[in-house]
Amino acid sequence: MSWLERSPIQGIINQLKPLPYPETDCSGKTIIVTGANVGLGLEAARHFVRLNAAKVILGCRNVEKGSQAKTDIETSTNRTGVAEVWQLDLTSFDSVKEFCQRAEKLHRLDVVVENAGVATGDFVQYEGYEQQITVNVISTFLMALLILPSLRRTATRFNVVPSLVIVTSDAHAYTSLTRARNAPSIFEALRGSAGMSGRYSNSKLLEVLVVRELATEMESSPKKPRVALNLVHPGLCKSKLFRHITWPISWIIAIGFLLLARTSEMGSRTLVSAALAGEETHGKYLGDCRMMEPSRFVRSEEGKRVQKRAYDELLGILEGVEPGITKNI
């Protein structure tokens, strides 16, 4: 179950426990990490370069900061010519499309870690939706479905099981989408400014629900071979995710960070573990470098009904953005 539903003491123990240091060789692999110029994404990309990946693509909104991250990685690993910086702005559907079109030209693509996300209390809309819904949900799955054919081609060509990792959060357990799921449309209910205090948790719950449904659909798809799609919760980490949160919540988060937060490097180990875990993690929720259960709501009968409804609504939105995209499933 989610650590938020376990005993507080056990949750604290798990949060403070050191995680396994990544040692799996990545020779020959091409890996994409989004949100890779800071925090978890930067440290995960650094691990992949250190583990001998042939190419590690840093998907970054700010190319200049991405270039600084690339230099940092090259200096710390003593490996040059491996990391590349590609522009990716999840507030723009066109940017996501351009990124995935570029990825189609890669000779192989073994791993995609969708780490980029946003957490904020400020109401701003991008592409007609509140930014956390646009970035954390719609653009995240727009990218997932657009890049899936590239992963499948690699699976066929090299007889491997590529991985598609969605970085989520145990914050999904803070919500059950009560207001949105009782509205005529879940995504329409989350389009406006009402309920902003819970919007990040809502976006994370939608990620969990959609991945579980998508994983099931992929299993029944005639488009073989397999791609391992999973979710990973990195734990509370000292990253830049909450940099847009304002006072007084920012102070509460700061205290939590001071007492419990993992370093970005420690948290990034969960991302690397999920990316290299294999086919047995398909459709699963991971944390602390192992498989876990999502929240009780997700596992409930009502959660399953909301899961199907949210998934169907999202596919409708994605078809409007990129007609025919659902054929990639």
UniProtKB/TrEMBL annotation:
It comes from the Eukaryota. Gene3D superfamilies: NAD(P)-binding Rossmann-like Domain. The chain crosses the membrane at residues 241-261. Pfam families: adh_short. GO terms for molecular function: oxidoreductase activity. SUPFAM superfamilies: NAD(P)-binding Rossmann-fold domains (SSF51735). InterPro entries: NAD(P)-bd_dom_sf (IPR036291), SDR_fam (IPR002347). Keywords: Membrane, Oxidoreductase, Transmembrane, Transmembrane helix. This is Putative short-chain dehydrogenase. It comes from Pseudomassariella vexata.
